[in-house]
Every structure is written in structure tokens, then in C-alpha cells.
């Protein structure tokens, strides 16, 4: 392979004999080199072959702004995630996750801690991805000596969730069906309470996100046993009677029996989204 472009001392754009491009990372791989030089194969630590041209171009731009150690760190997290989750991830995650880690570390250094409003859903409904997110914090700490807060485990998990290669359940027609059902559920809530929902509110955003996650699980026919006995649900029913009855209407509309945990979460979301 020969060097086509040098990003920095540790990252170069390479071209092989077939003129295929790849980004090659390694300590000192671009040091005192120039375009057209042969790459020292012994220095190669990681190779990025991004097949889609748009992703490849954005990745090259990212390398000009982000420290190469963050690129390498992101690569290790992604490879770990693939092994643990046993799923295919879209190549775009090499850009989104690297960019996120870079920004997260920058904010951390400035003493800023951004909350993750979805961490509740992520922990409950994507425990494997969240566990990978927690492990990613270990990777980051090992590389940078900075321990990011748990919220960042949720953010990393969200990147992994979004990057999972679409299955048949995520085809356009099913996405349309999901959108229709979400609108129907919102209408059930609106007509039950005879109010207009505030679509700019945080509670509305969380409710929509919860419903999207919920339908993805239904489409994948994921069966999750409730982690609680019915005690909490009974409490929710007693405290938020109208929200509970609204949830029952939604369950009837879905024509699917929900477990106690789902019933509880839907009830709580309905209570929050309708609270003035």
C-alpha cells in the first residue's frame, strides 16, 4: 500500500494495488513520510475500509479534526460491541461514535455533564447495549484517565442501537405502520383527556421515544418478562387511575397483552405527558 494522504503522524489514507482506499492507523505511520511512499506494514495497527463513498469522505474529514487516539478508541469499542451483541453495525457508527466521544471528553474537560433524558428507557429495554456502554467507559478511562459519567454509557448505547443494521422489521412499510400506530395512540391519549399535547415538551419527546422502542420490540417479537411483581403496577393504578385506564385503551387498540412492566411504563408516560 502507498500513502495517498497524510492526516497526521499516526493516520494516513492508503491506496492498494487495486486502487482501493482505506484509512490506516498506527503509531508513527505518517511520521516523516510523504504522499507516494510505501506504508510500513509493521506499523499498521488498525485499518478502516468504508465501502460507502459518502461515509468514507466524512470519515476523512473527521480525522482532520479529531485526535487519532479517539478514532482508535472508538474502533475498539465498536469491535467489542460487535462481539458482545452479535449484530452488524452500519459503518456510519465509526463517524458518529468517534465524534461523540471526542465531544464528550471535551465537555468533561470543561466540567460540563450533559444529561441523557433517555437513559431510563435504554437501561430497561436495551440492557445489553447499555452494558457495552458501561464497558466503553472503562476503555475510555484506560486510554485517557478520564472517567465519564454513567449518562455517557447511555449515549454510547444509543449510538449502538441506532447503528444496528436494519432488519426486515425496519423496512419502510413497517416504519409507516409504526408511525400510524404512534399517531393513533397519541389520539387515544388526547381524546381520553380532551387536551392537546405539548409536542415541544420533554415528556412528549420521551413518550414518543418510548413508543418507538416499544414497537421495535413488538416487531422483533421480543418477549421480556416483567422485572417487578404487580405491586408497583397496583400502586400506579391507584395513584394515576385515569392514566391507567387510558393505558388499557391502548392495550385494547394494540390487540396484544402487555406485561406488567410495560403497563406501568405506559401509565407513567401517559401521566407525565398529560400533566399540566
UniProtKB/TrEMBL annotation:
Residue intervals of the PRD domain: 65-170, 173-276
Q: Which UniProt keywords apply?
A: Repeat
Question: Record's Gene3D superfamilies?
Answer: CAT RNA-binding domain (2.30.24.10), PRD domain (1.10.1790.10)
Q: Do the record's keywords include rRNA-binding?
A: no
Q: Which GO terms describe its molecular function?
A: RNA binding
Q: One Pfam family this chain carries?
A: CAT_RBD
Against SUPFAM superfamilies, the record matches this protein to: PTS-regulatory domain, PRD, SacY-like RNA-binding domain
Superkingdom of the source? Bacteria
The UniProt entry's GO biological process terms, in alphabetical order, are: regulation of DNA-templated transcription
PANTHER family tied to this protein:
CRYPTIC BETA-GLUCOSIDE BGL OPERON ANTITERMINATOR (PTHR30185)
Q: What is this protein called?
A: PRD domain-containing protein
